[in-house]
Amino acid sequence: MIDMPAPSLPQQQLILTIYGLYGRRGGGQLPISVLIQMLGELGHDAPGVRSAVSRLKAKGVLTSVKNGGAARYELSERSLKLVSEGDERIFAPYRAATGAPWVLAIFSVPESMRDRRHQLRTELTRLGFGSMGAGVWIAPSGVREGARKRLESRGLDEYVEFFTGDYSSDSDMRAKVAQWWDLEALESQISEFMDTYGGSLEDWTALVGDDPEKALAASSEDLRRDAFRYYVPMLTLWRRLPYRDPGLPLEYLPPGWQGPEARRIFFSVHRLIAPLAEMYAMSLVQEAEAA
Description:
It is a single chain. By secondary structure, the chain is α+β, with helices and mostly antiparallel strands. The protein has three domains: 11-81, Orthogonal Bundle (Arc Repressor Mutant, subunit A), CATH 1.10.10.10; 100-166, 2-Layer Sandwich (Alpha-Beta Plaits); 182-290. The protein has helices at 11-23, 32-41, 46-58, 77-90, 114-126, 144-153, 173-180, 183-197, 200-208, 212-217, 221-238, 241-244, 259-290; strands at residues 29-31, 62-67, 70-75, 102-107, 130-133, 136-140, 160-165. It has a four-stranded antiparallel sheet, sandwiched between helices. Strands 1-3-2 form a three-stranded antiparallel sheet. A hairpin with a 2-residue loop joins strand 5 (130-133) and strand 6 (136-140). It is globular. Pfam families: PaaX, PaaX_C, PaaX_M. This is PaaX family transcriptional regulator.
């Protein structure tokens, strides 16, 4: 058996993770009964799940689907696009090399539209940009295209101009990076992940070995269930980090930065147990379809 970490995660985030992982594989739709069963495995009761689904529907994240007598939901078109774009960021290992180009996001918002200004700052922070000054934000150039798509989907792209180039200064870049980014907040998130899942690779390797195909072939339903209960919260906690950490060169970060180790652990455990978790999740979907 494996110890189950219990990070504190909102139901709505877990539901989005489940749709991103399994909703698209199940034809886009998931019956509410399956969501209740999946969230039940993660310790959430049915009334709470129904309430979270209602809130996501009110926000336009989920839409209800008429298909037979069972209540079903799917990601809205906008949410599906965001989830697909998120996969590119979450599952694509990336770290900029020292001396690589930077992208500047420069925005100007009329005083009468302060709410838009706040939204821009929030989105750019979530996308991993650091603040150089009023209306000027910076990130490694590799995040530019994803940021452009994200702002466009939010209706914020008309206020922003992107410029790519080199930083031609003899300044201490480590000091500059510490000034532009809130590294303490990012380090705190990385530490939370490491405190919760730092031993996960060792634990799962001891349990199933290091060959995911053999592990899947030899797995029992209980093992696949445990993998599901472990993997969904792990991915939900992890997916915040690739956005907040835009892949800054290690030379510009404090000594002993744990980001690369957290990334190594996540991707190694993902390789081992994601197939087990998926088989369990899809078995729930298939059982519901057959009922």
